[in-house]
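Hi F.,

I've been meaning to write this up properly since the lab meeting, where we talked about keeping a consistent format for the predictions we share between groups. The idea is simple: the sequence comes first, exactly as it goes in, then the structure tokens exactly as they come out, then a line or two of notes. No screenshots and no reformatting. I'm using this chain as the first example so we have something concrete to point to.
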Amino acid sequence: MTNEVVTIATLTYSRAELLKSQLEASGIECFLSNINVIRSAIGTGVKVKVRKSDMNNALRIVLLHDEEYGKDELETHDIVEDITKVLVPVDFSDYSKKACLYALGIADRLQAEITFMHSYYFDMMPLVNFSEPYTYQINASQSITDIKNRAEEEMLGLKEEMLREAHEKQYENINLKTYLTHGIPDKEIIAYSKEYNPGVIIMGTKIHSENSNQFFGNVTATVLEEAKVPVLTIPGKSNFSGVNKTNILYATDFDKSDFIAIRKLMTLIYLFDVKIYCVHIGNKEWDSVILNNLKNHIDEHYSGYDVEYTLIEADNILKGLQSFIDNKSIDIISMTTHKRNLITKFLRPSLTKKMLFHSNTPLLVFHA
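Output, unedited:
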């Protein structure tokens, strides 16, 4: 058994050599495979292997290596500042208003400015009458004006309603602005978020059915994938009870982007009373070692937070997480995006409908 060799990392050639030297400096024999023998300097996918008896100690060094490698990226690209702006795209629906309520509570605690944004969309193509182009132009112009005026009225009504809500809840730090534009909503939201630079985007989602309009739900999914800032989605059936004690599930897939996502999460929640459940679903024997290393990282950099670490053995990711969510009364699910990370398993059509649009639990997504 002690002679069995296992792969602990797959890296570029240069990083594999660096890790090999670190392992050997700690007395762990290391082997590299899948090297391009002709042009080794540009090799990719080099496998780093150790004896199975050394696996646990080796994995600790691998994780420290990854954390150190990620620090340069964090310092140059992912410095997280205090959140001073919250962007809330709205479509004036009931589920959209529920997102506004969440935004009020969060912005009040963070003393952040809120902007309600609405993009009214007018598809002119079905109205085209090629035999009467002049009539079409007049009707289209009148329709666009009507839509814009209606959007302005609804935005004013929403702002007044939310200001009343803020007054009733005795929020003292509400600075509420509005922004109207015309265009396809998901594209306009992404474009404006780059200009406005919010610390978080908060959006409402609703359950899909055959008889429901799925447009805004698709907008939410697009923003989740393309926005460069954290996105908090609020399902229409979620129950907002104020910003009190909040249970947050952070779902980790053991990627180096965890360190960046956790930093962003802590920046968002540091003024709130929260308990964090750091959860990984898997059954590999070294998963507990990796989870313990993540615990050490959080303990070292974010001491004082109430964090519980759990390794769940479940073949079905969705069912495993949902069971944990129910048992622990989770208020917010948090995860980070990555090409090979946990979120990609959710952003398949069937799982998206179940988790994003059918769940009653808000979803907070960070971008690595």
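Notes:
The two ends are 38 Å apart (CA to CA).
Residues 5-72 form a domain with the Alpha-Beta Plaits fold (CATH 3.30.70).

If this format works for you, I'll send the rest the same way.

G.
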